[in-house]
Amino acid sequence: MADRTIARRRPKPAPEGPHLRLVRTSDLMRSVQTPAALARRNLTLLLAPAALLTVIGLVMILSAGSISAVEGYGTSFWYFNRQTLYAAAGVVGLVVTARLPYAFWRRAAIPMLLALLPVMLLTLHPAFGSSLYGASRWIDLGPITLQPAEFAKFLTVCSAAAILSRPWKDLTRSRDVFLPLGPLVLVIAGVVLLQRDLGTTLIICGSVFLILFTAGVRGRHLAWTGLGAVAVTAWFTFKTEYRRTRFLEAWLNSELDPSGAGWQLRQGLIALGSGGWFGVGLGNSRQKWDYLPNAHSDFVFAVLGEELGLIGALAVLSLFGVLLFAGIRIAMNAPDAFGRLLAAGITGWIGLQTLVNLGAVTGLLPITGVPLPFLSFGGTALVVTLAGVGVVASVGLEGVRSAERRHARDRSRTGGGGSRW
């Protein structure tokens, strides 16, 4: 009797049949396809904001730079036409770097960076370099100008990722962390400082610091590195008169000299405050009429806030947020350590530069002359930034291929997806 009761309570086996086999196979395929689908979604979230920000940048350069372009070159389209050509070159660079295997930069970054050093030194020679606002950052090539320090940002990030991802590196030892990376970064930063460009120096060193953090360097080493960087930055800031004036009078006490050192920040804040919720309308900025210096370059976001309002500014900030989120996701899902550090470094570089520019425009940070990625006028910066996005996309594409290879291996093990059921 007890045996009969136990037999009645025993659950019936699940029915076998083609319907159940189909359901379970589809569930398996969905679970296997998920990594590839996520990788493709990350690529979309990376490339779509980059494209939209580039287009918005062209529109804002046409609007913000129209008055100064007419006064300087006789046509309101001068800045827009040049930036459009650079945007086209940047798109080509993005496509090339996206299709190029990112492992190329492991071998080529350091030699290319060392070859760039003499070119960076040419900016200091009067026959080749051109100066603006006291900085010697550009090489005049006739119809175009070249800013080698922008290439140095990208190549330094690639070099740091290549050095720290070497398999024989023990990142718990300070010697393995800072040799040969430390001397290389110091040389590049020193040359950029000779160009009197402290803002770019901070971006380069800050990007390398983020790569060190991503690589898992010990917190003690990061703390000492950060404290040393703060001390050196303070020394260079207060050692030079114009930097000291910019820090103390143009930032901390801008209200004491509103028509002198504090003029640019004050006019930028007036532009942002005048926009309200929905702005004064595209092309209707009042501050661009020679009130706001560098309205089409470093302070283009202030004009954007004035013309498109808080809603437009938040939309642009959201695009930056989506792009950075996608870059972080691609770095987390990279197939190897070099890809992870490379994607994280480029994403950190773009994010840090965005933060520094927006901090200067809103008065939260000192003005350093760092352009806003994708939006500010500057051909070399736009081309290099788009090429950097292409490298992150290359890491993401390899992530898609890796997921598809895993999917194919899993299907072959299960005999096409249904034989094990």
Structural account:
By secondary structure, the chain is an all-alpha fold. It has one domain (38-413). It contains 15 helices and three strands. The chain has helices spanning 2-9, 18-64, 66-73, 78-99, 104-122, 148-164, 174-178, 181-194, 198-215, 219-239, 241-252, 263-274, 300-332, 337-362, 379-413; strands spanning 129-132, 135-140, 145-146.
Q: Kindly report how far apart the N and C termini lie.
A: 36 Å
User: Can you count the beta strands?
Assistant: 3
Q: What gyration radius follows from the Cα positions, in whole Å?
A: 26 Å
* SSE order, one letter for each helix or strand: HHHHHEEEHHHHHHHHHH
Uncertain residue segments? 1-8, 14-32, 417-421
Helical segment count: 15
Shape: globular
Strand residue percentage: under 5%
Oligomeric assembly: single chain
Helix content bin: over 70%
- Biggest β-sheet, characterized? 3 strands, antiparallel
Counting helices, strands and paired strands, the structural category is mainly alpha
Q: Could you tell me the mean pLDDT?
A: 84
Q: Strand order across the biggest sheet?
A: 1-2-3
Count of the separate structural domains: 1
